[in-house]
User: Which sequence fits this backbone?
């Protein structure tokens, strides 16, 4: 059963509409990125998804059930890392995990607690209270708490906040491993690199609406601005070899050139054409583009007009997340 | 008895008095005695018992009889009526009717609150009968320290010290964090 | 142990075992010690009737218990929300009623510890007098609903306001008003307003019951009305907190 399906979600807080039309699906084994500017409604969407906020329109189904109606039971199967993420500073990490394991009816012995802490790369001194933890340690502990009951759906708000590059990589590996085991992951983050490395799918919301959603590859292809590349050249461009119409040279010098490609042409076809014209290309590097361009494109352009569909309406078929 | 009850009783007495205005007024006599079991030399905190007898010695019934206990301190320089708030919960009674020759006996418990020399009196009145006090019963109450310092000091100093020790131990245990 | 028991243990642990909790108990003991030392240090106070001393001590313990309940209740929901630790609790599979029960059970445990802490003081100032045991029983029977009622009040208000400071202020004002009979003389309390206030005020109900049991030596059975007032207070504030927790979003 699909871990999370949100369709046309509308939600108001204090009488003010916050979400107007949000849709997304997290299949088993998928890692779906939820992206959008500050105040777009990402956290509200996550809280509604776990049954903490009542919707005013649309549908939410967690494993086929309405989380607002069946929240208590469903939460045994959902692991959530909220942001901000508070702890009981006077407890030790072990006491804290044991406490939450009890709340989830998951009795853990000391060895199990150690394994859980190891899994998130946390091994504090036994008596060190959480109050003395660094931000990164607290983030790891929050993740351990979210994973305490081996949930089938993970809802994570900025999970790599405060982590060093090594810590981020460890968390990426952990999430990829969980997804590989069939866990659906909704990843809310501002770090586009996390999404590019981890997610098969992404959903962009702005102004309380889903403005783009689909496979990350498709989104990049559809929404990214004109693709820009830096070409390394072994010599100057032959004077008698002008660029074809679908390649626009932005700048060039003795050993390099920066070009934009027409979105209608695939890069492979463009490179073949340039080589045929005698360009001494030795290396090609992508410049810019990717999710950042998608983000800027869909967030700046705002929601699609009424009646229009978001591009690349995504499949709900299970996919394995791609890890870095 | 509250002021309101007292006022009501007096009003009832006055109304009853109007009804009996044509008859000769009743005559009340009040006796007061300490209970023989009372300690000979009472001290603060002791409980004493006094017995009063109100007798209608007249020829006509006495309706709406009210009797109350009073206490005055008579130590030189400290002469004053005593507020019985903490001394006794039984401060007054009312009797609907005391027939001629009939008597009403009442017990007045009292807990001794403060040291000194006192006089206890029970006074009876009705709308018809004159205000009739009992003879005084004299009372000398010995002072007794209420709180014993050999009990209070160890507790007052020991409990906070124990908790402070626990707090310091806790801080050392957790490295000073909360 | 079920979720409610775990929560109660956590709450009690936070109230009693943390440095903050121990600090609170230390403050309570200092107040009680101060009162005890005043009794033996001040000639005027040392001549107070023994029952009066016990009565005063019971009133002080009830007031401190209610104060602890207000502080703990304001922290339990609003404080946790401010620190971000409430959301993980709300995300755990605990029914809201269980959350409330766990929170108040923790406060009840803290109140029980306060009662235990008060016993040596009661013994020290009251064992030479009378009705100390009756007073202790009255403290448990009347003081408990009064103190926990203030805990419920703070929990409910904290759930609605979401701010511990915003919760503390009205609760403390109400507590001060409610506990004013501790400070007012009998004459003021016997005015028409005083009598009306005493009739509905749970704190007055407890104090009047202590007065009746300890000073007047009346039996506990005669305190049904006072007990009823305290229980109505407890039930009303529990309902207030229950609705507040149920409506709590995040």
Assistant:
């Amino acid at each position: 059963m699909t871990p999370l399906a949100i369709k046309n979600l509308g939600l108001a807080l204090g009488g003010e509409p916050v979400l107007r039309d949000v849709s997304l699906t997290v299949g088993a084994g998928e890692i779906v990125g939820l992206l959008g500017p500050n105040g777009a409604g990402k956290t509200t969407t996550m809280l509604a998804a776990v049954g903490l906020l009542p919707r005013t329109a649309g549908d939410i189904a967690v494993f086929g059930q309405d989380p607002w109606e069946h929240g208590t039971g469903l939460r045994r199967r959902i692991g959530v890392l909220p942001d901000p993420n508070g702890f009981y500073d006077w407890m030790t990490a072990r006491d804290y995990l044991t406490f939450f394991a009890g709340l989830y009816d998951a009795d853990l012995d000391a060895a199990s607690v150690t394994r859980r802490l190891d899994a998130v790369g946390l091994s504090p001194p036994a008596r060190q209270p959480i109050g003395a933890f660094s931000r990164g340690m607290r983030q790891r502990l929050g993740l351990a708490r979210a994973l305490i009951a081996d949930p089938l759906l993970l809802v994570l708000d900025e999970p790599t906040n405060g982590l060093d590059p090594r810590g981020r990589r460890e968390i990426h590996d952990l999430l990829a491993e969980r997804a590989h085991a069939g866990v659906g992951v909704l990843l809310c983050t501002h770090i586009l690199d996390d999404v590019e490395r981890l997610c098969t799918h992404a959903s962009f919301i702005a102004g309380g609406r889903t403005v783009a959603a689909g496979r990350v590859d498709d989104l990049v292809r559809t929404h990214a601005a004109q693709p820009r590349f830096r070409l390394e050249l072994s010599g100057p461009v032959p004077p008698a070899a002008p660029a074809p119409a679908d390649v626009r040279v932005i700048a060039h010098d003795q050993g390099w050139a920066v070009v934009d490609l027409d979105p209608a042409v695939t890069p492979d076809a463009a490179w073949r054409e340039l080589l045929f014209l005698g360009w001494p290309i030795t290396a090609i590097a992508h410049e810019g583009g990717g999710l950042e361009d998608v983000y800027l494109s869909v967030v700046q352009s705002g929601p699609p007009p009424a009646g229009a569909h978001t591009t690349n309406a995504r499949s709900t078929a299970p996919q394995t997340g791609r890890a870095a | 008895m509250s002021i309101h009850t007292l006022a009501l009783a007096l009003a009832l007495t006055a109304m009853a008095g109007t009804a009996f205005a044509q008859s000769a007024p009743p005559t009340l006599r009040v006796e007061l005695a300490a209970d023989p079991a009372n300690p000979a030399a009472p001290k603060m905190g002791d409980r004493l018992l006094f017995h009063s007898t109100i007798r209608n010695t007249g020829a006509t019934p006495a309706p709406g009889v009210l009797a109350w206990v009073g206490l005055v301190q008579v130590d030189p320089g400290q002469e004053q009526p005593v507020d019985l708030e903490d001394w006794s919960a039984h401060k007054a009674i009312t009797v609907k009717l005391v027939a001629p020759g009939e008597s009403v006996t009442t017990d007045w418990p009292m807990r001794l609150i403060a040291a000194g020399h006192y006089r206890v009196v029970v006074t009876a009145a009705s709308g018809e009968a004159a205000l009739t006090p009992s003879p005084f019963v004299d009372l000398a109450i010995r002072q007794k320290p209420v709180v014993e310092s050999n009990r209070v000091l160890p507790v007052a100093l020991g409990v906070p010290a124990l908790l402070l020790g626990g707090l310091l131990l806790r801080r050392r245990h957790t490295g000073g964090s909360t | 142990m079920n979720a409610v028991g775990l929560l109660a243990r956590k709450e009690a642990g936070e109230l009693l075992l943390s440095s903050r909790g121990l600090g609170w108990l230390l403050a309570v003991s200092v107040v009680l010690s101060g009162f005890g030392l005043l009794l033996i240090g001040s000639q005027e106070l040392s001549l107070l009737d023994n029952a009066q001393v016990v009565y005063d001590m019971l009133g002080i313990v009830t007031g401190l218990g209610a104060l602890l309940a207000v502080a703990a209740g304001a922290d339990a929901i609003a404080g946790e929300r401010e620190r971000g630790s409430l959301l993980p609790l709300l995300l755990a599979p605990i029914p809201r009623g269980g959350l409330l029960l766990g929170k108040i059970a923790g406060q009840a445990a803290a109140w029980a510890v306060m009662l235990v802490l008060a016993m040596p003081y009661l013994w020290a100032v009251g064992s030479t007098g009378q009705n100390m045991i009756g007073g202790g029983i009255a403290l448990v029977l009347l003081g408990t609903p009064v103190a926990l009622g203030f805990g419920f009040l703070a929990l409910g208000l904290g759930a609605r306001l979401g701010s511990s400071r915003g919760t503390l202020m009205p609760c403390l004002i109400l507590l001060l008003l409610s506990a004013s009979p501790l400070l007012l003389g009998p004459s003021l309390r016997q005015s028409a307003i005083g009598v009306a206030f005493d009739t509905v005020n749970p704190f007055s109900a407890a104090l009047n019951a202590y007065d009746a049991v300890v000073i007047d030596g009346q039996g506990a059975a005669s305190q049904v009305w006072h007990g009823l007032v305290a229980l109505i207070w407890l039930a009303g504030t529990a309902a207030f907190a229950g609705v507040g927790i149920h409506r709590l979003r995040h």
Summary: The longest helix of chain B spans residues 149-173. The interface with chain A takes residues 173-175, 177-178 of chain B (CB under 8 Å). The radius of gyration of chain B is 25 Å.
